Amino acid sequence: MEYNLKNISVVIDGRILQIYEGPSIEHLLIDSRKVYSPSLSLFFALKGPRRNGHQFISELYNKGVRNFVVSDNINLSDFPEAGFLLVRDTLEALQRLAAFHRKRFSIPVIGITGSNGKTIVKEWLYQLLHEKFNIVRSPKSYNSQLGVPLSVWQINEHHELAIFEAGISEPGEMEKLEKIIQPTIGILTNIGEAHSENFINREEKLTEKLKLFTHASKVIAKGDDAWITRQMVKVGTNNFFWGKNKSSDLEVVSVERKNSHSEITLSLPGRQAGFKLDTLNFSIPFIDEASIENAVTCCSLMLVAGIERSYIQEKMQQLQAVSMRLELKKAINHCSIINDSYSADLSSLTIALNFLDQQSAGTKRTVILSDFLQTGLKEEKLYDEISALLHNHHINKVIGIGKNIGTYLKSDNKAVYQFYNSTEDFLHQFRSSQFKEETILIKGARVFEFEKIAHALEQKVHQTVLEINLNALVHNLKEHQKFLHPSTKIMAMVKAFAYGSGGAEIAGILQYHKVDYLGVAYADEGVELRKAGINLPVMIMNPEESTFDAIVENNLEPDIYSFEILQQFDSYLKQSGLQYYPIHIEVETGMNRLGFDVTAIKNLGDALNETNSFRVKSVFSHLAASEDPTQDEFTLQQHKKFIEASEELKKILGYSFIKHIANSAAIIRHPLLQMDMVRLGIGMYGVDAANTNSLELQTVATLKSTIAQIKHLKTGESVSYNRKGIVNRDSVIATIRIGYADGYSRFLGDGVGKMLVNGQLAPVIGTVCMDMTMIDVTDIPNVKEGDEVIVFGNELPIEQMAEWADTIPYEIMTGISQRVKRVYFEE
Question: What is the pLDDT of residue 325?
Fold first, then answer.
């Protein structure tokens, strides 16, 4: 069955307001920032407490989305080429469609719920079983009223097993999720305090969770808690209990922890039909209690499923850790940071503190905590337990942020306690000198935005300033747009920290002015853009296997330039349970740097068609010499090769994609090469890459510093290292707060480079130092310490500085150190 608006209207009981006869619907869309394949997507205009999805219909329509489910009246004349279904509740409609889709498949479905461990159990089951079954599973932690339908929608005819998480925060939610997931086998990980505030008591919470297993043939759970087992028996589920109790269906006989692994012995008492009275031994590469419990849960599932014992023993020892956002990073003043600003509950705090114990050997321990929300516990009891945890883990300093933690958290004499009402209050009073040679755990609920604290602890500050004129940037963007057709898209290149100008800030203004794409070199640059709230599509030019997690987590789109990276990313996406992920294909036409050779296009197309992991968003190539008139014939040959290659790939794939080859220079010199999109880079920052004088560009970046000291030297005295600067007259020498560590090239020493002081050029004298450079200001009147010095800017163009240094403006701009403070302004 192929989905279209007509048959979907029947499924969700929607009234057709306007029909759209387009391609079949493949993707369900709820976020305007995550549009992968607009023509194949159906957007549900959801209403939340802060945003209304109907507000984004125009934006999505302009992006190419043509199918919409709405609950408000729509002015259809504004969207003549789109189809609309009207329903009472768009969330309910989304869930009904997913439930209908699930019923079309008769494969085994594992439904997992519990307070903690859902994602790890799901991921470990995938690790254990993916060689035996074609598995579909929840991406990341998609376990909510929204996440579950999006997860279930992924099922297709090729899947043999499904594994889905289900999480609830209030009564009435699990019935909806059960109808969507319809699990044949259930797993209950545990019942803890997370999201308890909307339940009367623990019994109500467990009763609600067990509704997921209403129609399951078997339910697996830890049986050591008699209250849980009684409740499960009471509701009538067909249970398989594991635990230390000898009456369990699977008894945990022993757990022996070694240095880096645990050896587990289980016994099968034989009460279950088909099981013999014997033992099962295996090891896992973990020693913490949570991992041991999760591993036994996974083992129980495999036994219930009839997996052979030898396979279980082999695969258990190969389990790998699942990233749950606990990372150790280097920070200021020889500190380290564990950033766990994802959630705040007692269970995850315990896990994080255990991690802190492992990573803080020999250093002081600091914990930054927010208020704990939605735990279901009374404030006094909650913070008593937190106090005990902090005491037991020997924390040296506690920083509490929020209105409750300062009131209820009890201090002791063994630690220093500081409290702030908000993250903003903390940052306002933040001093880097407060932290030195310590390991810092940052643990807070999402709403407190503790990522700002992590950034402050990592931040580097320097007095020399790079000023960025955002008005000039927009002007230069519009100057280049004059040479483009209205339909031609723009990919703005913000790689290398936006050519040294600051990626997130530059991306923000470009997003406001509606560029179509952003391009960066590496994944961490794209992550920074996402953290800054940039939701434009972002292409990663140099993806690496180690950054696939960050790429997918932040909805970034990698450039695939070789069969090796194609295979690596394909494997990663399959392991992550993701399909039709947006990618870009780079074709080699003469640059001879990265890209698929034009002779390999058929093999590439075949490889792409063999998997459902990808959706090609664009195909592109790099021009080697578009700015050089003597190389125009070569440039046109590159274009011809690219056209032939992209058309061949389009024919093999059977669908269209964006094609682009033109860079800043080609926009001006080769207008016929603009195709579907152009990549605007250095020209946007005020450098005329084409050298045609066809543009009226404005200076975007001005590098400034100040005079630290003035010295009066006598004839014959020397300046700087190796005495290379000898004054041949009585001279006035100014020391400037900039050196090669800031990006001021050593090639500019010994009189080669010049700086602007009081409107006049002053030559560099002697060798450029790491942090300082000396200039001769003898002939410039009224120079004093603290005066401003222009290194490059409007009156001293960067092109001139690049010429002095025998390089190009690109190198100067991208070489400006991160320690140089960026200041952004609009006139």
Answer: 47
Q: Would you call 721 a catalytic residue per the annotation?
A: yes
Kindly report the pTM of this predicted structure: 0.54
Nearest to 369 by CA among 401, 345, 341: 401
Q: Return d(Cα 296, Cα 31) in angstroms, integer.
A: 37
Q: Is 244 a catalytic residue?
A: no
Provide the phi-psi class of 779: left if phi over 0, else alpha when psi is between -120 and 50, else beta: alpha
Which pLDDT band, with edges at 50, 70 and 90, does 496 fall under? low
Give the separation between CA 271 and CA 248, rounded to whole angstroms: 9
What is the enclosing helix (H) or strand (E) of 597?
strand 596-597
- Cross-strand bridge partners of residue 185: 110, 218
User: In this predicted model, what pLDDT tens digit does every residue of 1-39 receive, in sequence order?
Assistant: 799 999 999 999 999 999 998 899 988 999 886 776 788
Block residue for tokens 């099968």: 268
Q: Are 714 and 721 in contact (CB under 8 A)?
A: no
d(C-alpha 755, C-alpha 762), whole Å? 5
pLDDT tier at 447, thresholds 50, 70, 90: confident
pLDDT at position 115: 81
Cβ contacts of residue 409 below 8 Å, gap of 6+?
369, 383, 386, 387, 398, 400, 417, 419
For 29, the enclosing helix (H) or strand (E) is strand 27-29
Residue 270, pLDDT score: 54
Point out the catalytic residue in the list 403, 414, 711, 721.
721
**What is the tens place of the pLDDT at every residue in 731-785?**
999 999 999 999 999 999 999 999 999 999 999 999 999 999 999 999 999 999 9
Q: Give the pLDDT of residue 816.
A: 87
pLDDT value at residue 228 = 86
Chain center to CA of 287: 29
d(C-alpha 54, C-alpha 47), whole Å = 8
Asked whether the CA dihedral 97, 99, 105, 108 is positive or negative, the reply is: positive
CA dist., res. 442 & res. 527, Å (int): 19
Which residues have a Cβ under 8 Å from the Cβ of 228 and sit 6 or more positions away?
188, 191, 206, 221, 222
Higher-scoring residue by pLDDT: 813, 177: 177
How would you class 378 by CB atoms within 10 Å of its CB: exposed for 0-12, middle for 13-18, buried for 19 or more?
exposed
The CA distances from residue 23 to 27, 210, 335, 805, in Å, are: 12, 40, 54, 56
SS3 label, residue 505: helix
User: Mean pLDDT, the chain, as a whole number?
Assistant: 88
Q: How far apart are CA 167 and CA 180, in angstroms?
A: 13
User: Model confidence over 326-340: pLDDT tens digits?
Assistant: 566 667 887 878 877
Residues 572-600 have a mean pLDDT of 94
C-alpha to C-alpha distance for 69 and 89, rounded to whole angstroms: 9
- The catalytic position among 495, 659, 704, 754 is 495
The span from the CA of 569 to the CA of 565, in Å, is 6
Kind of pairing, strands 701-713 and 731-736?
Answer: antiparallel
Q: What is the DSSP string of 635-650?
A: HHHHHHHHHHHHHHHH
DSSP three-state, residue 470: helix
Complete DSSP assignment for 138-194: -STT--STTHHHHHHTT--TT-SEEEEE---SSTTHHHHHHHHH--SEEEE----ST
Q: Give the Cα separation of 102 and 470 in Å (integer).
A: 50
Provide mean pLDDT across the span 444-454. 84
CA 386 distance to own-chain centroid: 30
Lookup result for tokens 């810092």: 440
| Mean pLDDT to the nearest integer, 167-185 | 92
Residue that is written with structure tokens 């009223």 in the block: 145
Matching residue, tokens 């606990």: 326
Alpha helices for 188-252 (secondary structure H): 202-210, 226-235
